[in-house]
Write a structure and sequence with these properties.
Blueprint: H1 6-20, E1 26-31, H2 38-49, E2 53-59, H3 61-66, H4 76-84, E3 91-95, H5 100-107, E4 112-116, E5 131-135, H6 144-148, E6 153-159, H7 167-170, E7 177-183, H8 187-197, E8 201-203, H9 206-211, E9 215-219, H10 222-234, E10 238-241, H11 249-262, E11 266-268, H12 276-286, E12 293-301, H13 311-326, E13 332-335, E14 338-339, E15 345-353, E16 358-364, E17 372-377, E18 380-385, E19 393-398, E20 404-408, H14 416-428, H15 439-455
Parallel strand pairs: 1-2, 1-4, 2-3, 4-5, 6-7, 6-9, 7-8, 9-10, 10-11, 12-16
Antiparallel strand pairs: 12-17, 13-15, 14-15, 15-16, 17-18, 18-19, 19-20
Helix pairs in contact: 10-11, 11-15, 13-15
Amino acid sequence: MGDSGDNTKRGLWNQKFVQKGEIMKKVITYGTFDLFHQGHYNIIKRAKELGDYLIVGVTSESYDIERGKLNVQDSLLKRIENVRSTGLADEIIIEEYQGQKVNDIIKYDIDILVIGSDWKGKFDYLKNYCEVRYLPRTKNISSTQIRDQGTIYRVGVVAENDQDGGIVEETRYVSGIHVESVFAQEQQTAEKFCEKYELNSCETDYEKFLSGVDIVYVRCGLKHRVDYIERAIEQGKYVISDSPLTLDPDTLKRLFYKARQQGVVLVEKLMLVYLRAFNQLVWLTHGDMIGKVLSVNCSISQDDFEGGKSFYETVVHAICAILKILGKGCVEVTSNAVKNDEGKYVYDVITMKYPDALGTIEIGSTLDMENELVILGTKGRVTIPNDWWNTGYFEAKVEGSEFLKRFSFNFEGNGFRYLLQELLIMISDKRTECTRLFYEESEAIVDILRAITGKQ
């Protein structure tokens, strides 16, 4: 699909340049262009400046769904019209399927493909067909007018190193959110993070940092985590934090109380509870698919979990999974920690005893462990293989059937986009409590972590 009169326009351009004895340089770029903003305009304008004829590909609704793009708010027709209204596109086409770029480059005899630098390296394979240009990420796209309309929220990251936890890349797939700033105590760390992810600003002054963002992602150790969360809430910011938020029940209660008082949302980065596959699994096990659940066994390696997280940040996901399946009625927690000659923790088997069921967590570091979640019931079992905390798939062996039932759900990226999507829904609905992980469940997680700590 192209603009009306596209063929005529293309013919006139070719005729014009042939007559002058010159070669026309054709450029193509692609995007969803949802909630059209300055960043979209900038990339189209800069693409136009690289050649004589610009083709803009706008993604279809079905293709956005296929590639995991969430929360697209504008219709395809509106997105096309927004691109058209810039007056920069000589031709507009629709991108409808994976691999279309190669066909378009050949079909339209493209000289340059223009893509944002946040996709750097992802389209290098197309250099066999044309020149590929990665343009720098547009900074500070959230103009006052757009923010006042409540369509785009500015995100800031509290960091201790140059790792973003995947949030910058994942926001590419969620309309209405944009990472713009970083805070770190050390200037060098802030500058390194800012340069790496092409952000608008880096700060070592936390109050100044808070004044320029709407959502704060607290990605730092437990030592400073509560302070950053609390100060952000007091400034009326929505907060995402690595989990656990704290190991103190009274502090946890205070944080959630302040969030409700300020009318903002505080969510833990426990991506498992935002995944459709896991929620379906919980629903099916509660619905008697495998009978009465007797056991939930989680095996998890710290080294495989997000590149090696702390003990607390790793085990909390297994605790969450057991709580979601067996509930909050755990009556006893035991830990059997094994340490090496240097006194460093390397392995543990944790049991969560219920009146009529048992939850078991096998967790290790620098060990060749097989990550797996297995649920045993009186009528069968359910298994999530490999990185079960980040999955779109599980399988069930049900009594009376000789075949495995396989359940597969759409899952893209590292799962962060599903949390971000839910956060935007909560903001839109003016909710101050996350219904995917209730306060009482966060409280239970802290109680279990404290029980483990007291026995190690």
